[in-house]
Amino acid sequence: MSSNTPPLAKKIPTERTHHGDTFVDEYAWLSNKEDPETKAYLEAENEFLKQQTAHLADLQEQVFQEIKGRTQETDLSVPSRKGAWWYFSRTEEGKQYAVSCRVPADSEAPPEITPGVKLDRERVILDGNELADDSPFFSIGTSSVTPDGTMLAYSTDYKGDERFTLRFKNLETGELLPDEISDIFYGGAWSADGSAFFYTRVDDAWRPYQVYRHTLGTEEDVLVYEETDERYWVGIGLTRSERYLVLGAGSKITSEVRILDATDPTGEFRVVRPRTTGMEYSVEHAGDFFYILHNENAENFELATAPLDDPGAWTPIIAHRDDTRLLEIDAFQDHAVVHFRRDGLTGLRILPYPSTISDWRERVEAAERNAYEIDFPEPLYDVGPAGNPEFSTKRLRLAYTSMVTPPSVYDYELDTHELILLKRRPVLGGYDPADYEQFREWATAEDGTKVPVSIVKRKDASKPAPTVLYGYGSYETSIDPSFSVPRLSLLDRGFVFAVAHVRGGGEMGRRWYEEGKLTRKRNTFTDFVAVARHLKATGWSERIIARGGSAGGLLMGAVTNLAPEEFAGVVAEVPFVDALNTILDPSLPLTVIEWDEWGDPLHNPDVYAYMKSYTPYENVDGRPYPPILAITSLNDTRVLYHEPAKWIARLRSTAQGGPFLLKTEMGAGHGGRSGRYDAWREEAFALSWIIERGTS
Asked: Which domains does the chain have, with CATH numbers?
């Protein structure tokens, strides 16, 4: 095959007819994963990609070495205390996966750690490298220790299809129990006495819908809950207090919670409050009462309390505010912490309980009167609780980062209000945050809405500069300002990196999300285009390379159809670009669940017409398109590989411009390759392609 001749996908016209509309899908045959021709086509695409990017080999290796050289390969996480142990993980140079460990807890302060130096009395819980062996893919789905610290439940995936096998390990003897359970989902929870482990299973549409109880040493597991509504997922956890098991069922817009005394694993779960369409809530046990975070008549959520014997009776404690989105509540014995979002940034509010007040209602009211927020000095940052498994503690562990500050772990002393820096991720090779600067800009969307943009660059970089513009904009997921080692390879070459905080995400609260979903989804795409034009008009950018993944890959496809002239290149990772065909098929993973996000085009002709107006695959036309790199994985269960495969084939046959390239990981899932060195090489590949697009 000539390096200039791309694979040509055969055309087999397949008609789709809905609501009086007929669409001819010539590449539907690529959805048959078992067809040898499908695999042959994907392998031919990979070969063509290698030929087209062979000239980037030296640059790829250079960028890989930069990422590797800036990373402290032998490192330790900050230990977190749980009961009688400090838990942490370590990485070792040359090894792909982390090793989970623990040491006995002798004091309230975490033990001092030194990379490469084994702590006294250190015990290995799980060695990812040992478990992975020579498998090309490896992932851990859950790792959960019993409350008394004697037993570990862990699950593994060797394909990338997110179907895990659950095993149990005695941490006192190192012995693996014979109990083994296959085809389970992420997560799980122990009973208080460690005799039973609760886990979830998925249905054919990859929806976690059943909760089972496994009693150690038995073969017949008990189904304790099954969700029959196809719009709902289920999950289970153990409260920080270890008092209650919490079983949650939720759709995109509605939730329902059941609780069970964790000391009675064979008991019956009771409903906190029955589901009401559009109402979401979560439950946090705070000792002698519950906290309830909910959005009943409170778009940005409010915080309420409820008695243990009547958890459905809610009394507001932090009222709804239009400018503040309450994200979560973490309850401890002597205080509570509210994680919130305001003005596009995250924050923490501390509610200290007065020790002199015994009545829980009065104590909570006093805590709110004395509440305060922790201040941080940078104009852009992201902060949140991290690693706080202990219910009784005088310290709050939090994670902090910005676009110039590497991920940092702090302990916040509740008594002294002191922030103690425990660790900042080392960045080797002479990195100095003072060489970089970050900014917040506001672009004006088509309808006049101001869209926030986070920007980082080297101080000595000239403007306008080649720019990577990243976006997501779905599921109320926020792309907060954060640090990236690989990004330095762009910034140090004079690039600007920007994040468009478009509607459909959660950066500006629940309303921001509502204005970018269902039949207002186009706002997500037009916001992104408006940001690109703003960056050019204000002198920040010249050649813009757009990048996004998953639902952000849908964004990439949509903006390329809307304004192909604005972009010098597009990187779309595991992109949801065949959205209408997927959402029309309820047999596919996640489809029915997704109707609350995108609408139901199968039964609603207006939704069908609206989605057809923007779905990337069906709107490719004959205009010149920028070069596009689509990256996918054969075993992805969330965005199936055939979506980008079909999209690239259609671009080749219809559009001008390009080139249009497809890279398929033949042994990975939604997150790509699993080992850290493999992941760095994949990122180096994408960055080398971006660098060429931005500087050529």
From this structure: 38-69+440-695 (3.40.50.1820)
